[in-house]
């Protein structure tokens, strides 16, 4: 059975557990990068680099608590998703649509 990823902003625990392919309630950097690449328009390689360089204080694998820490990976991903939602909304507003 295939499950879709829940919205990271609305159900972070469920998202984390689905991204946890090993089922040990810890995410390896590769698992987190793959999960985030499924919801962000970035490659898993780009996300992996961001994860490894953006949070040098995190030792992998990461726990749910570390994932959710203020200014941590979940916070960054939620900001990216909010930015995408805002951009998509702006593109669909009538003032931004042109007649062909």
Structure summary:
With 100 residues, the chain is mainly alpha-helical. It has helices at residues 12-19, 29-37, 44-54, 64-68, 73-92, and strands at residues 26-27, 62-63.
Question: What proportion of the residues is helical, as a percent range?
Answer: 40-55%
Mean pLDDT equals: 86
**Biggest sheet, in brief?**
2 strands, antiparallel
Overall geometry comes to: globular
Broad structural category: mainly alpha
Total DSSP E strands: 2
Strand/helix succession: HEHHEHH
Provide the β-strand percentage band.
Answer: under 5%
Uncertain spans: 96-100
The rounded distance between the terminal residues' Cα atoms is 43 Å
Helix and strand topology:
Layout: H1 12-19, E1 26-27, H2 29-37, H3 44-54, E2 62-63, H4 64-68, H5 73-92
Antiparallel strand pairs: 1-2
Structure description:
This protein is mainly α. 53% of the residues lie in helices and 4% in strands. It has a two-stranded antiparallel sheet. α1 packs across α2 and α2 packs across α3. The longest helix has 20 residues. The C terminus is likely disordered.
């Amino acid at each position: 059975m295939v499950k879709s990823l829940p919205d990271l902003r609305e159900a972070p625990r469920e998202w984390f557990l689905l991204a946890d392919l090993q089922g040990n309630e810890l995410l390896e950097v590769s698992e987190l990068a793959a999960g985030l690449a499924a919801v962000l328009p970035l490659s898993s390689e780009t996300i992996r680099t961001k994860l490894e360089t953006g949070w040098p204080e995190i030792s992998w694998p990461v726990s749910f608590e570390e994932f959710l820490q203020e200014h941590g990976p979940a916070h960054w991903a939620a900001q990216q998703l909010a930015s995408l939602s805002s951009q998509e909304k702006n593109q669909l507003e009538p003032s931004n649509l042109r007649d062909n």
